Amino acid sequence: TRAAFYLADSAIAALWEVVLRGVRPNSRGGVYVSPADYTGRSIVTLKPRVDIPLLMRVDRPRRYRLVDADSPGDTAWDMCLNLAVHDLSHGAAHAVDRFLAERGIQHAGLGWKSKQYPDGTVYLLYAPPFAEGQWEVGEIIDLTSPQGISLIRQAVEAAGYIWISTPDEVPVEPELPDS
Length: 179
What we know:
This protein is an alpha/beta fold. It has four helices and eight strands, in the order E-H-E-E-E-H-H-E-E-E-H-E. Strands 1-6-5-4 form a four-stranded mixed β-sheet. It has a two-stranded parallel sheet with strand order 2-8. Strands 3-7 form a two-stranded antiparallel sheet.
């Protein structure tokens, strides 16, 4: 396997992929996020210092240049992209990388729609060609800071849930639009 960087195209997508992936909304759509889920974590903005070579998007419909729609291969790709256990998804990413290499398709990484937050895209960028020193580190937001908590709340609400600040808080019923 190759070493890699795992990134997302937005803070919301990154939070759903890492911090919020196990949340369970209550019966009213309220979500409480335990501090244990985000303590010791940060959101970091990175900018590459080098041009990003070819990234292979492996979500639909971009992967149809590799497999036919609704074929067993297409189904297998979906399974690979939607594995909940990280150890299995790492193995699947290796298999995808090998699949592309066997077909002579050189790439610097893979990209696909986030399983957790489909409005976001996640990327697995390989090292090499990327290395730790090739990234310009921008803003670093500690998730326990007020700004970090605000980002987590925004991510919860972006998915259509109601943020609750304590596990026993009952959210106010959202007003439904008149039809």
